[in-house]
Amino acid sequence: MRRRLTLLVAATMCLALLAFVVPLALLLRTVAQDRAVATAAADAQSLVSLVGTADPDTLRISVEHMAAGARGPLTVFLADRSVLGSRAPRTSAVRLAALAGVSRTVERPDGREIVVAVLGRPDGTAVIRAFVPAAELTRGVTRAWLVLAGLGVALLLLGLLVADRLSRALVSPITELSAVSHRLARADLTARARPQGPPELRQVAGALNHLADRIQELLREEREQVADLSHRLRAPLTSLRLEAESLAGTDATRIAARVDAMERAVTGLIDEARHRREADAYAVCEAASALRERVAFWAVLAEDTGRAVTLDVTVEGPLPVGVPADELAAAVDALLGNVFAHTPDGTAFSVSLAPRTGGGALLTVADDGPGLSADLAERGASRGGSTGLGLDIARRVAQSSGGRMDLSAGRTGGARVTLELGPPVSPPASPPASS
Fold first, then answer.
1. What is the pLDDT of residues 79-110, one digit of tens each?
2. pLDDT digits (tens, 9 = 90+) for 265-292
3. Angle at Cα 84 formed by Cα 38 and Cα 125, nearest 5°?
4. Where would a tag sit more exposed on the chain, N or C end, judged by fewer CB atoms within 10 A?
């Protein structure tokens, strides 16, 4: 935009300068020609009275004196064929003036010829001839044109400088607005635009800041609602804990452990809803250890339902991904929960983790069940009476890291869900402190 504004000003100024300089240059040339012709005509007219009345000797001395000071040749042709002043041929204009007694100005290839007929001499009509060379007609024109060209270039450069300053003052607020909008898109809700520039841009900056405030307010309300809803789950969890404590044996221990795990999940959900940090956009966790922990948790239930579990983690060392550990655990729980909810008991399933090209990881959960259709990946879609949010949770976790979710059929015809988890994103460097 800045370049386009500068080019627009440059084109406008060039047209204005052409419209001003070209006519002025032509006018200067015309003025120079008229000035040279007028000077030569004045020299010729100054000899008219002298040629008509002076004796030959006085006339010769006066003509030679004036011819020596004239800018061009100045000649007097007498009727007796004698020539006074500058040596010059008797041209057709001179002969015509002598015969007809008329004065005129004649355009010639090498200049302009001015002839003045002087009547009343005893020996006949005399003719005064003044000649203006072509060089004299354009004397000073080239220098004037150079001055005009230099002035035009200086004005053009000055206009471009002013246009660059103005466009910078206009584009800089727009660039800042764009940067703030990108920060808001990356969940940096602390980003605010400074109202600057023209009134319209200040209004846009104010509207963008109002939008960011409104987004923060809506998110805060949503988190409080989620936290309140999660808090309500503690009452039935407490009841389940009491029921578990009333039992005896290994069943009581197992149920109490699951109630504890559910209570921890609810507590984590409340903390996440109320205290989610904007730094989650730059969160990182080690995928291999988080996956092993969740598979170990679900392996107990798999053993109770007669399911064979295969865990394949083909990675050496840590495998960082760009999602928080609790969100990755929620995605794994959602995928494994779908296996238990939508496949009959005894159905085997496998979980694998491998490095992703370009960073991140590929998490795959496959089962030997009846499979899932692609429309079940939509939020709220379910065939088993559940909420239908499991696959949507996994999809959003993958997308938050810059990856995606792929739903396909496995080798045995069952469902195969692959999560592409992106690599961690480094936070922007803090600006150096001013001294």
1. 888 888 888 888 888 888 888 888 888 888 88
2. 766 666 665 555 444 556 788 999 999 9
3. 80
4. C
Q: Is 261 in the same domain as 204?
A: yes
Indicate the SS3 state at residue 14: helix
Q: Tell me the residue type at 405.
A: M
Element (H, E) at 321: strand 320-321
Instruction: Say if residue 372's pLDDT is above 80.
Output: no
Reduced to 3 DSSP states, what percent helix, strand and coil does the chain have, rounded to the nearest 5? Answer: 60, 15, 25
What CATH code is carried by the domain that includes residue 317?
3.30.565.10
Structure tokens at 332: 């794994």
Within 8 A by CB and 6+ apart from 320, the residues are 284, 285, 286, 287, 423, 424
pTM above 0.70, yes or no: no
* Distance between CA atoms of residues 188 and 179, nearest Å: 11
Residue 205 lies in a domain: yes
Asked if 201 and 306 sit in the same domain, the reply is no
Looking at residues 333-339, what average pLDDT do you find? Answer: 88
Q: Which domain holds residue 256?
A: 186-280
Same domain, 337 and 258: no
Are 287 and 378 found together in one domain?
A: yes
